[in-house]
């Protein structure tokens, strides 16, 4: 520790700037008159006597008369004991602060901008643990491993967990190696390009942060049904639809569960067109009043407004317009839409194919 650092440490221990200056100088001189000490340090001569009296009262020095006022440093044992006790006290204070500290929650507003990625990650983890509908997640392998306990809870709650794994860098593709997904994710895809961190949970909240190589570092927390839908479309079209599936917990045999009506239509439309009978369980909300509703019935029609000429296999973007089903259940006819439905009777947040059967003559 050099002289300047020693003076700073003494000031942190409770000495004033002039007291620290005079004491360090006196340690070097051993003993000196008041005027000699003032000349050897940055303390003005007019202040040196007051400074010496204060240092003597603190036990750092002692003064004596020898033609004029002189001073010498005391045995540093008492000084060291004082400094060590202060150090212990500061250590205990640090431990007490850590023990008492509780991470303050970010107030839930419609939209919040934060600076720290940890805030975004912690909010996402909190939301995922409480999920029982759907989790859409874009993460690095390391982030996925850290979120596994929360994802496992969501999976146990019955949520559909869709995960896109992506490398931190374009040359880090080996990090996308097979991991243990059973009991953690419903479906996993690999994206070979670095991607923002995205978490969309139960259609009510979203967390977003740019990838680490982004010029601007910030985070977005969304607690709004409509704004979350924007992130949902970004996830589906840019991060999900075009990338390869590496794990799928569903076998392709009923029951087959969907959280998005467009994915249901991608699979069901060819079956309905060929005359197959699909029995599905619908869970969602009445669009008029938002009351929860569940029913099981036959899908009698699939309607969609294609934004381009449809092929044999409909893409997600081809279903960007209105998509709805007609379901006959217990003598009632329901029109069923997806997220944000207003024209249909029901907004479905879970569609489960319970059975698929061919035509009577087929």
TrEMBL record:
Residues 10-75 form the Transcription regulator TrmB N-terminal domain. Residues 111-355 form the Transcription regulator TrmB C-terminal domain. Gene3D superfamilies: Winged helix-like DNA-binding domain superfamily/Winged helix DNA-binding domain (1.10.10.10). Transmembrane segments: none annotated. InterPro entries: TrmB-like, Tscrpt_reg_TrmB_C, Tscrpt_reg_TrmB_N, WH-like_DNA-bd_sf, WH_DNA-bd_sf. SUPFAM superfamilies: TrmB C-terminal domain-like (SSF159071), Winged helix' DNA-binding domain (SSF46785). It holds the Pfam family Regulator_TrmB. Belongs to the transcriptional regulator TrmB family. This is TrmB family transcriptional regulator.
């Amino acid at each position: 520790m050099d002289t300047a650092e020693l003076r700073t440490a003494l000031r942190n221990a409770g000495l004033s700037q002039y007291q620290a200056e005079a004491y360090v100088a006196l340690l070097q001189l051993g003993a000196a008159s008041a005027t000699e000490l003032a000349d050897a340090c940055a303390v003005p001569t007019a202040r040196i006597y007051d400074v010496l009296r204060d240092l003597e009262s603190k036990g750092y020095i002692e003064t004596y008369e020898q033609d004029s006022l002189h001073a010498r440093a005391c045995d540093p044992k008492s000084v060291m004991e004082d400094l060590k006790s202060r150090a212990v006290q500061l250590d205990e204070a640090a431990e007490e602060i850590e023990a008492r500290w509780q991470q303050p929650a970010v107030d839930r507003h419609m939209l919040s901008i934060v600076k720290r990625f940890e805030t975004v990650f912690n909010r996402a983890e909190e939301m995922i643990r409480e999920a029982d509908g759907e989790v859409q997640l874009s993460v690095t392998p390391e982030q996925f491993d850290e979120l596994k306990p929360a994802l496992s809870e969501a999976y146990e709650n019955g949520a559909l967990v869709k995960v896109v794994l992506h490398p931190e860098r374009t040359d880090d593709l080996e990090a996308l190696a097979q991991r243990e997904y059973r009991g953690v994710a419903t479906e996993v895809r690999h994206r070979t390009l670095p991607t923002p961190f995205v978490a969309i949970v139960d259609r009510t909240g979203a967390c977003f942060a740019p990838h680490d190589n982004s010029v601007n570092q910030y985070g977005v927390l969304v607690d709004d049904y409509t704004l979350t839908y924007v992130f949902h479309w970004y996830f589906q079209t840019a991060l999900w639809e075009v990338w390869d599936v590496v794990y799928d917990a569903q076998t392709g045999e009923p029951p087959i569960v969907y959280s998005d009506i467009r994915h249901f239509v991608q699979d069901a439309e060819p079956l309905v067109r060929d005359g197959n009978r699909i029995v599905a369980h619908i869970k969602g909300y009445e669009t008029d009043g938002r009351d929860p509703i569940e029913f099981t019935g036959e899908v009698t029609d699939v309607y969609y407004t294609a934004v381009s000429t449809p092929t044999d296999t409909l893409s997600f973007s081809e279903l960007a317009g209105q998509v709805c089903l007609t379901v006959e259940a217990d003598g009632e006819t329901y029109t069923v839409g997806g997220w944000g439905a207003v024209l249909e009777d029901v907004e479905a947040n879970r569609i489960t194919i319970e059975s698929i059967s061919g035509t009577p003559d087929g």
